[in-house]
Amino acid sequence: MARRAKQTKYITLANMCELCANPTKFELLGEAAGQEDGKRWAKCSKCHHTMMIDMLVVEGEKRSTKKEVTVAVEDCVPYSPRQIYTVGDAIYHKAWDDVGTVVSKELTSKGGQAIVVSFNKVGEKRLIENLA
Q1: Which of 4, 51, 62, 91 is most buried, most CB within 10 Å of its CB?
Q2: Nearest by Cα to 58 from 20, 127, 100, 7
Q3: Which of 53, 60, 67, 3 is CA-nearest to residue 25?
Q4: What range does the domain containing 21 cover?
Q5: For 58-83, what is each residue's pLDDT tens digit?
Q6: E strands, the chain, where?
């Protein structure tokens, strides 16, 4: 009989808790009864809010975040909050000594502009752009 791989008790999600809005670890509680496969109950380790998560989406996020940008530092644009960037630009962040690619653009709650950058070392970060 084949052995199944042991699943971890805790999982770290890319998104945040629905209640406390903090990025945190979630404790996996069990399968959701009456739901399609891949749905599990998870409890926030900070506020103890319980919510249902789709494990297929979580696995997809893990695979997509493992991609590394293989762009040389010399070919990247140095990051400055005063510049404007486009999706796909390669950026070098001097403080983090890391290279990343602009994944998307967003508006902040105060009407400013932000970019979402996927870095090799520090992961996905939101940075300000076009700061006056």
Answers
A1: 91
A2: 7
A3: 53
A4: 10-65
A5: 666 555 555 555 788 888 999 999 99
A6: 10-12, 25-31, 39-44, 50-54, 77-78, 90-93, 98-107, 113-119, 124-129
